[in-house]
Amino acid sequence: MRKTDATETITQALTVLKNIKSTGERIREASSDAIDPEVAAQVAYCYYAGENVVRDIGEALRWYRYAADKGSALACYSLAFCYLTGEGVAVNDALAVQWLRKAAQLGDCLSQRLLAALLERGKGAKQDYAEAFRLYHEAARQGDLPAQCSLGLFYERGLGVAADPVLAFAWYRKAAECGYARAQFNLGVCYQSGLGTSADSSQAIAWWRLAALQGNAEAVEALDRSGIVVEGGALP
User: Fold this and answer.
1) Burial class of residue 131, CB neighbours in 10 A (0-12, 13-18, 19+)
2) What is the pTM assigned to this prediction?
């Protein structure tokens, strides 16, 4: 079965929905292996969001399960999200972890990051810092900014890996330079304390300013402690 691009996937999903409306078929429409799992996942999303069809969470879940069983990372992630939030199903963190593992194995960076966060907290599975680190690293390599920031924290605190302040600084900086506010705040802390770099208060304040402009409360507090007051969301 060949892959479909995003535009073609949406077009095919709308065609499936049209056929369902005209024939009254439901999940039986997905019984053929000719339907790409990503198309099925898009059909599921249409039911979930009520786009081009009456919203039906139960039908969305059936299509998501079909697509997930056929190897759609998006469908696996979506099922996990439903189990985490109780959307159409009873909350079940263990099942959420199960579907996230499948999506993570398929290379989905958002699933890798979310699974890492659950393993970091011991939610839905036994706490496992080493596996959380590995997953954060996989997602960070794909450019996921929150994962890069979390990776910096793991290197800073020695969670699942030997503590390395230089690498902590490097990952914070990588995410901060791409505009991620939490990483900008953490990078400012590194400059303020000399973690992984030479202490430089002016650099700390500069990064905290950038984070504060995005509404990061910790950065606003850090600036306040430095005598720089943020008024009305603007910096002097």
Assistant:
1) middle
2) 0.85
